[in-house]
Amino acid sequence: MALVIPDILEEACSTRQALERLGSKWRILLVYGLLAGPQRHSELRRRIPGITQKMLTETLRGMEADGLVRREVLKESAPQHVEYSLTALGKTLQEPLAAICAWATATLPEGQRP
Predict the structure, then answer these.
(1) Nearest-angstrom CA–CA distance, 49 and 47
(2) Mean pLDDT value of segment 11-40
(3) pTM of the entire predicted model
(4) In which order are the strands placed within the sheet that holds 69-75?
(5) Is 65's pLDDT higher than 80?
(6) Cross-strand partners of 72
(7) Three state DSSP letters for the chain
């Protein structure tokens, strides 16, 4: 079977659209953070150094709109408790991201490895 390489330079290319959605470092880091299981906003903020509260909220909303993250309200009354988790679609990113980590570990010079 021949490898089909999509024309990612075309705007309508689904591969290009996926890369544009996942191109944000915060999205990838949030996927990694949520692979450990459902978490609250504050837990994610602590686990991902450098992300602001505003950026975390915006990124989670975008990921929810794209079907990658599920937002579940655990307690309606104040203070509200909300938990975020990966959807089935979001969990499908685990294998491709693991492949990128393996590639980075194998190709980066010793001093630049995570």
Answers:
(1) 6
(2) 88
(3) 0.80
(4) 39-40, 81-86, 69-75
(5) yes
(6) 83
(7) CCCCCCCCCCCCCHHHHHHHHHCCHHHHHHHHHHCCCCEEHHHHHHHCCCCCHHHHHHHHHHHHHCCCEEEEEEECCCCCEEEEEECHHHHCCHHHHHHHHHHHHHHCCHHHCC
User: Both tokens of residue 72?
Assistant: 């579940």
- The two structure tokens encoding residue 71: 């937002």
State the Cα–Cα distance between residues 110 and 114, nearest whole angstrom. Answer: 9
| pLDDT(114) > 60 | no
Amino acid at 88: A
Going by C-alpha positions, the residue among 83, 94, 90 that lies closest to residue 38 is 83
- Dig out the tokens for 97 from the structure: 């991201």
Least confident range of 9-18, 80-89, 96-105: 9-18
